[in-house]
Amino acid sequence: GCEVSIATSGPVEGEWDLFRVEQVLVNLLTNAGKYGDSKPVRVTVERAGELAVIRVRDQGLGIPKDAHQRIFERFERV
């Protein structure tokens, strides 16, 4: 129920674990849709030196600062 836009500054080439990238993106987009108050979600893909950077930004309440360190651990929820 929310608009999703995707932006990139150009091609980002590399070798990826497609399953894991898909898994992370699906989880982030699902959470953005669930907790983003139906507001637009923006996905950006860019190159930062030798790295690829993917950002998913929603306009929800956000994650409490004290949970930032552990949010990307396995099986962790906030």
> In this structure, how is the largest beta sheet organized?
3 strands, mixed
Radius of gyration: 14 Å
Tell me how many strands there are. Answer: 3
What percent of residues are in strands?
25-35%
Overall geometry comes to globular
Mean pLDDT: 88
Given helix and strand content, the structural type is alpha+beta
Architecture overview:
By secondary structure, the protein is an alpha+beta fold. Helix content is 23%, strand content 26%. The protein has one helix and three strands, in the order E-H-E-E. It has one helix spanning 18-35; strands at 4-8, 41-48, 51-57. It has a three-stranded mixed sheet with strand order 1-2-3, with helices on one face. Strand 2 and strand 3 form a beta hairpin. The longest helix has 18 residues, at 18-35. The relative contact order is 0.22. The mean pLDDT is 88.
Topology summary:
Layout (H helix, E strand, L loop, with lengths): L3 E5 L9 H18 L5 E8 L2 E7 L21
Parallel strand pairs: 1-2
Antiparallel strand pairs: 2-3
